[in-house]
Every structure is written in structure tokens, then in C-alpha cells.
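Figure S4 source data
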Amino acid sequence: MATALPKAARGGPGRPRRVTGTRRLMAAAFLLPALVLLGALVVYPIGYSLHRSFFDRAGTGFAGLDNYVEIFTDDTILTAVRNNLVWVVVAPAVATALGLVFAVLTERVRWGTAFKLIVFMPMAVSMLAAGIIFRLVYEQDPDRGVANAVWVGVHDTFSESAAYPKARPLPVHPLEAAGGGAYVTKEPVRAGSPVLLPLVGVAPGDMPADARPARPAPTAPDRITGTAWLDFTRGGGGTPNTIDAREPGLKGLKVEAVGDGRVVATATVAADGTFTLPAAAEGTFLRLPESNFREPYNGVDWLGPTLVTPAIIGSYVWMWAGFAMVLIAAGLAGLPRELLEAARVDGANEWQVFRRVTVPLLAPVLAVVLVTLMINVLKIFDLVFIIAPGSVQDDANVLALQLYRSSFGTDAHLGVGSAIAVLLLLLVIPVMFFNIRRIRRETRR
């Protein structure tokens, strides 16, 4: 016997009403605010940008495809396109690779959680703050920029720096320029007549800590002797070409005896400024080689035209490697451990387990991280705008920065700016399409 449906469940004579209902009007009412916001904030700007990209600078004359042609003919915009390609290829790959390495290694150390926290902390810093931080890190002056402070420290460990980079003789001194930054005596030297090698231009604070007051060199009939000193008395009162009591010796200065175009003998000045050369130096000219006066190594021009883009990518990786690490570590925690142990039992070493088991199993997670970072770098703006100095901003240019400059700069061209915005949208769509397909594939599983 059939059971009668309640009246509320009946849709009409002979046709029962669905239990869940089809209240389309109610559903539309709930969706309407979201659709209005979506249209106002996404659909309308896209449509207006597309429309505006076909008009001229004033927005009154139809320009056709001229704005798009300018994108691929203007040197500045082409540089932005090339730099964006470098960003898309390099930055996500490096950040993902570092995240994978960090996630795998931190599983095996006791302090892995603390390490993950430290690596992830830059994500809490805004792009603006990170840009300011790395603008200081990449400062050319080693006394201010951390990168060059480290680089110069390593360089000076393996390469001897100049003793007195700013030292020089005065016209009244018995020395003259010899080319290449060296100085040579005006007259040949003779045994038994001490040589005077006075210099100026060295700040008292730059003198060696163990330099002593200069003293006249002893006379030796079979040797060449002399004194090299700082011919400057603090507070005044000194006499040029005279060794005064408070004038220090130029300790470590190198002296060469040059005759017939070759170096006959060499000497190093002592703490009191004195030096001695053998009798073979008789009749030669004394030369202070350029190695005494080279400017100190000042590090790498990180923000120069050549390295500015890799330097900014480095700051981006510093921020986003922690993001990649956290997502990959979450995927790593869900891997079936029996597969890893089975590979080890079968004789695979740790590198083979990582390459042939761990990475393939993590492929979906790695794809998520890589695609997310690719979309992110396509619209990179803050770091480039803040870190790159104005003189090299054209060399570090990217599409998002060029979009800002074309739309709001002093010579704004909204038609070109809108065309760049459309180009960015077209570049993002394939990546988003790939991501959507991957999500649907994962959902079907």
C-alpha cells in the first residue's frame, strides 16, 4: 500500500514537490551582493581596461592596436617583459627548491620546528618593509651594507689591502708621479746619504696602531738608508721635508729600488719610518709602487645595472622560501612512510629515496607552490620599486612597475598602461587555467 505524502511535500495535483525546494529567487538574492561586488571590482575594471587600451593618450581618439605595438617596440617596456620572464623562470623555481630542501632536512633535526619558524618569519614582513631592509643590505658602502661588509671581509682575508690609499707627496717633496699611481724620487740615491720620503694625505685615525714617531735613518757607507713618514704635524707647526718630533713613520710602506727599468731591491718601512736597501741600490731611483696607494676594495655593486634584478630576486626568495617550506612540509607529513622504508629496505640510499620516491609523491604539492609563486611574481611591484635606485630602475623594470609608471607617471599614457594591464591578464590566465585543471583532477581522485 503506497504511503501518502504530506500536503507540504506535494507540488500540485499528481506531482509531489521536491523536499529541498528550488527556490531560485532566494538563491539569486543571496548571490546578488557577491555578484555585484565581483562585477564592480573585477569584471568592470577588466572590461574598462580592455576598452581603454584601444584609445590614445587623451582617451578620445581610437588608436587600434597602436598601444599593443608600442609594448613590443619600446625598449623600456621590452626590458620589463624580459625581466618578467626572468622572474617567472627563476624566482618560483629557486624558492620552491629551497622550500623542498628545508622541509626535508628539518624533518631530521631536533630543532626543526624552531628552524621552520625562523625561515617562515619573513612572511610576516610586508613587501614595503622587506624592500627597505634589502635596500640597506645592498648598500655599496661596506660600513652600511651587510652584503658588501661580508664580501669585503672575505676579499680582504685572501687579498692584501693597500696600506695608505690616499697618501701623496707635495710639490716641495723629493718625489714625483711615475704613472699608474706610483711615485719615484726625483734624484738617484747614494750610499751614505739618507733618503727622505715624506708623504701627506693620511688621516691620523688611518695610521697603523703600532706606528711610532719617525726618526732619521742612520748613515751607512755601504747601504742605502732612508725614512718614509707622514710629513704632517697635528695642530700645525711642522716644517716640510723635515722629520718633526710628532710625525709618525709610514709603517709597512713598500719601497723599490729601480734601475735600468727593473727592480733591483725592495724594502719595507719599519714602525719608526726607517728602511734599508743593499749596496746594489746605489745610483737607482726609489719608487713607491702603486700597491701602496690603491683604493680599498669596496665590494660588489649589487644595485648596479648588471646585478640589480638578481639582487631583488634574492630578497623575494628570502621572503617566500618559508611559504614554500611550510606547504611542502605539510605534504611531506602526509606521505606514506611505508613506501620510504620499503625503498630503503630495497637498498636505495637517501638521495635515491629523495629523488625517486619523495619528490614524485610530492609532485602535486610542488605544483601548487610553483603555480602560486608564478602568479605572485607576475605582479611583483613593491620590491622592485623600493630596492632599485632611480638610476637603474629601467634596468630592473617589470610589467607591474611599468604599468604604474605608464598610468601615473609624469608622462602618463593611460592607453599604454591599460594595454600592459591586459597583457598581464593574458599572462596570468594560462597559469590559472593550469591550476584549475589540476584542482579538478585532484578532486576527481
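Figure S5 source data
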Amino acid sequence: MSKTVTLNEDDCIGCQACVDICPGVFGFIEGEGKALVINPDGGTEEEILEAMDICPVSCISWEED
């Protein structure tokens, strides 16, 4: 079973920490002030875990495929 990174945009506060840590996975919607997953395979698992750890509202998680 594999897992895919997800981001709950409703909970996102727009700090952009995830984008700074892992720009290959996360992007930012300027008009909405929210982050989003642009490429779930764009970074290492370690980078994604670091983004999860630093997110102040814990809106990044793994979804089982």
C-alpha cells in the first residue's frame, strides 16, 4: 500500500513554510493565501515529513492509496 501527501486547504493559514521546505511538492495560491499540493512526487519523504512537522496548523498528512 502506498501513501500520497495531502494538504487541507481549508485549515491552511498561508504561512508558506511547506513551500519553503519542499517547493517541488507544495505551491502557493497568492489570491487565496493558501498552499496546495502541486506534485505529490516532487520531493523526498524526508522533505515532506519536515513540512508536516513544521506546519503550525498540522494541515499536511498522508493519505493511503
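The beta strands are 3-7, 26-29, 34-37, 60-64. The helical segments are 17-21, 45-54.
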